[in-house]
Amino acid sequence: MQDDARSSYRVEVHPSDIDGVLAELEVHFTGGPLDGTKLVGFQVRRGNNDGTFVTFPARAWGAGTERRYYDFLRSTASDRRVARLSMARVARWLKDAWKKEVGDEAN
Fold first, then answer.
1. Is pLDDT above 70 for 39?
2. Cβ neighbours, 10 Å, residue 55
3. The model's pTM
4. Which of 32, 39, 106, 107 could form a disulfide with 99 if both were Cys (CB 3.0 to 4.6 A apart)?
5. Domain boundaries, the chain
């Protein structure tokens, strides 16, 4: 399948009143086969020492006391180091979009 050059995406930021969650983030798609859809479930959360971090959408499942998580957004890289770097890049992109939206409140 060929990439559609007319496709684009943007991050939409929704402030949150949930304790520890600073914002809910959505990635909205325009053009191409994903036109009119969004990927939801990202959050900017308050961390230790006044830091922040981004969580990705995932689903927990399990039986008894065992829990596993299925990540909805994953790297296509087979090398684990490259995969970690690509997911860190996405987290940084989302966090930068949040900072741009809230301005000085992010600090």
1. yes
2. 14
3. 0.81
4. 106
5. 8-106
Phi, psi (degrees; rounded to nearest 5) at 11: -100, 130
pLDDT over 70 at 2, yes or no? no
User: Which residues touch 98 (CB under 8 Å, ≥6 apart)?
Assistant: 11, 13, 22, 23, 25, 44, 106
Structure tokens at 11: 């991050």
So what's the pLDDT on residue 80? 93
Q: Helices (H) and strands (E) in the chain — how many of each?
A: 1, 6
Total residue length of the chain:
107
| CA separation for the pair 35, 33 (Å, rounded) | 6
Please work out, in degrees rounded to the nearest 5, the angle formed at the alpha carbon of residue 96 by the alpha carbons of 91 and 98.
Answer: 95
- Which residue blocks in 1-107 are alpha helix, DSSP H? 80-102
**Residue 104, pLDDT above cutoff 80:** no
How many other C-beta atoms can be found within 10 angstroms of the C-beta atom of residue 13?
19
Angle at 14 between CA 8 and CA 18, to 5 degrees: 145
